[in-house]
Amino acid sequence: MSRPIELDELHWLLAITQSIDVGVVVLDSDYQVQVWNTFMENRSGVQPKDAMGQAFFNLFPEIDREWFRKKVSSVVTLGTPAFTIWEQRPYLVRFKNYQPITGQEAFMYQNTTILPLRSTNSEVTHICVVIYDVTDVATNRRQLQASNLQLQKLSSTDRLTGLYNRGYWEEALKLEYVRHGRYGHATSLIMFDIDHFKRVNDTYGHQVGDQVIQRVAQVLRGLVRDADIAGRYGGEEFAVLLPDTDKAGGGILAERLRLAVEAEVVEHESGPIRFTISLGVADLGYPSNEYQQLIEWADQALYASKRAGRNRVTVYERP
C-alpha cells in the first residue's frame, strides 16, 4: 500500500505547478509561504527563494486580512474549498495586467480558490491558494454591461436634447401615479412649449429651430433637481415630472424656467433670436382615475397660458 505523500516530498510535483498558467501558493497555519510557483514569481516579481517562509500578508499588504482569515478558517474547519469570483472581489492580490488585448485594465481580475491540504493524520495543516487570471472574461463582461447601459440610455433619451424621451418619462409618471395612490405623496407635472416656434423654423430654418430647442433643454437641465424627470414631449413641447412636489412648488419652478428662457439668446447672422415659453402646471390634488389625467390637466393649463397671451405660467384649477 502506498504511503501518503508528505509536504516536503511534493518537490516532484513542482514541475506541474510551475507549468500551469495559474498562481499556486501553499500557506502554513501561520500564513507563511511554503510553495510559490512560476506564475506568482512572474506576476509579483518576487522569486521563490525570497517568498519562502515569508508571511503572505507581508508580501501583499493590500489583502483584506480579516476577510482572508475568515475564509481560511472556514476552509480549515469544514475541510472544503472556498471560492471567490472577480464580481464579488476584483482581485485577491493586486497584479498589474500585462495582457495585450485587455491592456487597458489597470490590474488583473482574479478568481480565487482556497483548498484544504491534509497531513497524514487527516488534519488540515496547510491551505493552497489558486489564483486564476480572468481579466479577459471580466473585461468582456464589463464592456458588454457598458454597451447595454448605453443602449438603455439611447432607448430612453431624446437625441436632439439629451432629455428623456416621452416613453421614458411617461413610464416614470405611471410609477409616480401608483406611488401617489398608495402613499398619498404629492406629484406635479409641468407642460410647456416654445412660443411661435413655427415662425422660428419658417424664418431661420430647421437647424436654427433645433438650436432653440437645445437651448431650452439646456436651461431646463440646469434648473431641475436630480429626482425630477425632464423630457421632451414632442416637437417643441416639453414635460417635467416633479415627485414629492405639489402644484404650488411646480408653479415656482415653472416661473423660474420661464424667466430663464426669456433671458436666453441664440445668435444668428441676421441678428439675435429671442424666444419665450408658455407653461401649464397641475398636480394630483384632485381625484383621478388614471395617470393620463395629470397630463390632460397640465396641458389644459398650458393652453390657457397661450390663450392669455403666451410667455406665462398657468396652474390648473378644476372649474
From TrEMBL:
- Species name: Pseudomonas rhizosphaerae
Name of a matching Pfam family = PAS
What compartments host this protein?
Answer: Cell inner membrane
Lineage here is: Bacteria, Pseudomonadati, Pseudomonadota, Gammaproteobacteria, Pseudomonadales
Per the record, the GO terms for biological process are: cell adhesion involved in single-species biofilm formation; negative regulation of bacterial-type flagellum-dependent cell motility; regulation of DNA-templated transcription
What Gene Ontology cellular-component terms does the record carry? plasma membrane
According to its UniProt record, this protein's enzyme class is transferase
Superkingdom, natural source: Bacteria
Q: Please classify the protein's predominant subcellular localization into one broad category.
A: membrane
Domain GGDEF per the UniProt entry, residue ranges: 185-318
> Domain PAS, which positions?
9-79
Name of the protein this chain belongs to = diguanylate cyclase
Q: Which cofactor does it need?
A: Mg(2+)
